[in-house]
Write a structure and sequence with these properties.
Arc Repressor Mutant, subunit A
Length: about 120
């Protein structure tokens, strides 16, 4: 069976969505099996809702930080992972990932691009 390049890309996208959702769900304490089912269901739902459409995702799009992530980041005191994981019903690994993600985005927003010569 010869698969087209688009078919391969579509499969890669849906697989990535499924695995990403599953990893995040495990950070919230869901079992591996339930997290995998959730990831597969979300990938299938996206496929059913948007199947047949051509979508473009801009490379430079930065998702807005959601309020919960900012609250976690602002409550972080350098070593209170256990406290935050209980408060937000997440694993410590999930809390660490949120803090790291928010920190990277804050730095990126504050630091101008190396070759950004916008003269406006």
């Amino acid at each position: 069976m010869n698969k087209s390049a688009m078919s391969i890309k579509r499969h890669e996208l849906l697989t990535h969505i499924s695995l990403s959702v599953a990893r995040e769900a495990m950070d919230y304490g869901l079992s591996d099996d339930i997290a995998a089912q959730l990831g597969d269901n979300i990938a299938n739902t996206i496929s059913e809702l948007f199947g047949g459409q051509n979508l473009t995702f801009p490379r430079d799009f930065i998702f807005k930080l959601n309020q919960r992530d900012l609250q976690i980041y602002n409550a972080f005191k350098g070593n209170n992972y256990a406290e935050l994981s209980q408060k937000y019903n997440m694993t410590e690994r999930g809390i660490r990932k949120v803090i790291d993600r928010v920190h990277k985005r804050i730095i990126k927003e504050k630091q101008p691009a190396l070759f950004d010569f916008d003269n406006t």
